[in-house]
Amino acid sequence: MPNIILVEDEDAHRELIERAFEQIEDGTLLEHFASVRDAEQYLANASAGSIDAVIVDWNLPDGQGMDLLRRVRVDAPFLLMTSFGNESLAVEAIKAGAMDYIVKSPEEFRRMPVTIQRIRREWVNIQKRKHAEEALRLREEQLRALINNTDDPIWSINTEYRLLAVNAAFQAVIQILVQQTATLGANVLEYFPEVGNNRRSLWKGYYDSVLQTGKQVVAEHQYSLDGITVDSEMSFHPIVSLSGSISGVVVFTRDVSERKRSERELYEREERLNAALLEKSRLLKELEREKTRTLQAVVEGQEHERSRIAKDLHDGVGQMLSVVKIGVSAVQEQLTSIAPDEAEQLYDSIILLDQAVQEVRSVSHQLMPVALKQLGLSAAIQDICSSITASTAIIIDTELSALEVRMDAVQELTLYRIVQEFLNNTLKYGNAKRISIQALREESSLLVMYEDDGKGFDIHADRVGIGLNNIVSRATMLGGTAELHSTPGEGMAATIDIPLQAA
Question: What predicted TM-score, i.e. pTM, was given to this entire model?
Fold first, then answer.
């Protein structure tokens, strides 16, 4: 319920005002005082928000109503009453803090409740506006303090490139760069000389882009400040008016020197790392080439030694055995008629000599296969397979048409030795009944696949035979790979993959 203070020394006027409030029946409490002193004492002790309005007469026994307005601060509107109208009096009342004033009359007294409601609404609106303005002022002060306390330059311009606002950091930078003080209203382009990267046209382009498109522009800039190179990131933002038009540009900058330094250090470390990786790769390739050359030298040495031994066996031991066979055969023919029993014993020796000659020839051919040089890899492998099937019960299935295209002699010999090593291992340890050898040419590689159904072995055993190691080494020498698969009791399978470029 409203609580209104009435300061009036004339009883007749007081009664008319009280009667007016009684007629509206809104429960208004009307506190009456006849002097400035009594009203001042009451208002001074009143709690905040307990008074809704104060009605005070201009002339009172102990002073003027204006005195009450000046001496007491009440969070409520004041209505000043006078006995006669006066414009200067009205101005003075408003300046003193009164919301309004009225000239006393029966009509004004009857309308007093409506008048109080009106000035109350106006008072509330004014207080809200004051509070909003104060809050806005505080926010502006806080924003201004925040902007001025940052070390990054911030400034704004209108559509004519004239400064609207700047912070202390911007002032400091301009003072160092051009020995001037940035002035609000000045053309910002005047502070950016046409020197080095500080091109005035470049800055104008940033502003124009934002003013014309209304889109943010981000740019990086480098300048020298007190002899120190500073890398900055600038963000140009449009200032949009209430009507939606672009009215200016605000620029926020950020010192990114530390980030740039870290990026440069990271880039240099990456360059050094890449260089080290390239050097490592080069050394690994060189090591691989050296390994290949070493393997090739070993294989070539082995083949040279095989060739020498084969030649010595064929031309030396083989020839001597043939001569011995001829001599023994002649003696055996002479003894046939004289001593048949001794002749029979010599015949048995001749058979052994003949087998020895054949064995020497066979070993000589294995050490240096003639078919490989004359007919090619496919025929040479078929030849060795025929020899095995002729002397054992093992069945060998072959599909070697992919090997009929001739290759380098060393490469053919290496593949021949790989297949020969597989066959020897199967014959010695595999106890197999069937062997399969296939060759396949793909777009970029040559595949040789070997498989037997023998007893197999543990591929993960600590000790692997020399023969298998030779197979892997020979495949590596050709730039390829050898994949071996075996399980005890389930035979073995292998794939030799040789790049066609190397083959």
Answer: 0.40
